[in-house]
Design goal:
The protein contains 17 helices and 15 strands. By secondary structure, it is an alpha/beta fold. It folds into 2 domains: 230 residues, Rossmann fold (3-Layer(aba) Sandwich); 172 residues, 3-Layer(aba) Sandwich (Rossmann fold).
């Protein structure tokens, strides 16, 4: 362990980072900000992105990347063998390496560990076997890719997952626990404060989007079919045929958005569904969450469901699939609603919610107080464990053993990264942020104009 009095020096590695953003990039960003501001020092190591300016309160080290995947998904594939970068990182005085991605970042982390002898932690965030089986054409290729993935993860001194469901998924694809190598669950947090957004802002947004006077259902996240969105739309169709009043708000963007909107039109739900696009301003996003009565998240893919915790932070309960990772920690009809993985079952719960909004809002209050976890608490838990891992490494209680890094292993990882990242991206923040800001400014201007008109009308009446 470092002798520095200002805390540990942490190396955080991930394949995605702003201007490209996803849930894992958001995790790394919060780790870096909180460690750097409150606990010690953090450096983020990530692939380079042309023209990016890293104006963060912590160091960001970019290594060589290739544009093979950029046109498809805004990701750049990292090339983790830069001798110059590795030499620089070797002399950075790190105490521990923490990789958040099992592809290029983990490969680079393993090389850095060989050069430094530092302990290495790997967090498994995503059910990558699903991505791999979607990305590669044959079962033989899929099985081999998953085998290499597990081997890469297994090289870590300690493996974390973000939920019990993620742990079970990792075990199911071949990771082996031993008495001295148990997977540790380290939950992610939420960067929202506990509490609803400003009521005036919420009411203005509801009015702006035509939601006032209706029960409002909500989805926030990447618009991808495997998030359970088809189940959402088909359950809404059932409600519509029964004459149930509702409005549905989809907040987000993604590769399947065009198909999803087309299916919405095919089901004749366009008048009742609003697609807002991605909202990256966090305070503005709190307004969108608070504008909903009930969050719908029937995803079996997600391992943690940070969006469920974000909704809870804003006092909004969720409809979740029984047994899913996102449903972990949720008590049925107290902090959320648990249902079967079936559109008819989801529709039944939504119909109940639409006519029992007071009970739904009470569930939201319970969720706010019982489900919420801040990023500060989450990162401090991880930071405390870092110290224990470093001490174990110092005492020789570590699995820090590497064989020669095989060329075919690394070339396989590179090909797999190319294929998998096609299914794990959303557009670059920088490409959307300007439009997003214009939209926010427009709404605020309308709000001010309405306020002036109301004041004028009030003065005339007097």
């Amino acid at each position: 362990m470092s002798d520095k009095k200002d805390g540990l020096n942490i190396c955080l590695m991930n394949d995605s980072f702003p201007p490209v953003i996803d849930g894992v990039a958001n995790t790394v960003l919060n780790y870096a900000e909180i460690i750097n501001s409150e606990l010690g020092k953090a450096t983020v190591v990530t692939p380079e992105y042309p023209g990016v300016q890293d104006n963060f309160p912590f160091p960001v080290v970019r290594y060589t990347s290739m544009s093979i995947t950029e046109k498809i998904c805004s990701y750049r594939m990292g090339y983790p063998f830069s001798a110059r970068k590795l030499d620089s990182l070797t002399s950075s005085g790190f105490d521990i390496i923490h990789s958040h991605c099992p592809f290029a970042s983990m490969v680079m982390a393993r090389v850095l560990r060989i050069k430094t002898g530092l302990p290495l932690v790997m967090t498994y965030h995503t059910k990558f076997d699903i991505d791999i089986r979607r990305a590669l054409p044959t079962k033989m290729m899929q099985d081999q890719a998953i085998k290499m993935l597990v081997a890469n993860i297994s090289a870590a001194d300690e493996v974390w997952t973000v939920s019990e469901g993620a742990r079970q998924n990792l075990l199911s694809i071949g990771y082996e626990e031993t008495e001295g190598r148990q997977i540790r669950i380290m939950e992610n947090g939420v960067d929202f404060p506990r509490g609803r957004a400003n009521p005036d802002d919420v009411e203005f947004l509801r009015s702006e989007l035509g939601l006032t006077g209706h029960p409002v259902f909500l989805f926030v996240g990447r618009l991808l079919w495997y998030k359970g969105i088809k189940h959402i739309l088909e359950s809404l169709k059932i409600l519509d045929e029964r004459g149930v009043d509702f409005r549905m708000m989809f907040v987000g963007d993604g590769a399947d958005r065009e198909e999803i909107e087309a299916y919405t039109e095919e089901l004749k739900l366009t008048d009742k569904c609003v697609f807002t696009g991605a909202i990256y301003d966090r305070e503005e996003l709190r307004v969108y969450y608070t504008a909903g009565d009930l969050f719908i998240f029937p995803s079996l893919y997600d391992t943690n469901g940070i969006v469920v915790r974000e909704a809870a932070a804003c006092g909004v309960p969720s409809v979740l699939i029984k047994g899913s990772c996102a449903a972990e920690g949720i008590t049925n009809r107290r902090t959320g609603i648990l249902t079967d993985d079936d559109p008819a079952a989801i529709a039944a719960e939504l119909e109940y919610a639409a006519s029992h909004l007071d009970e739904v809002h009470q569930m939201g209050d319970h969720a706010m107080n019982e489900v919420y976890m801040s990023w500060e608490d989450s990162v401090k838990n991880a930071y405390a464990r870092y110290g224990e891992i470093i001490a174990n490494c110092r005492d020789g209680k570590t699995s820090n053993q590497e064989t020669d890094l095989q060329v075919d292993f690394f070339s396989g990882i590179s090909r797999m990264t190319d294929a998998v990242q096609r299914f794990r991206s959303i557009p670059a923040v920088s490409a959307i942020r300007e439009t997003n800001h214009r939209s926010i400014a427009k709404r605020r201007a309308k709000k001010e104009e309405k306020k002036k008109l109301d004041e004028t009308s009030s003065g005339t009446n007097e």
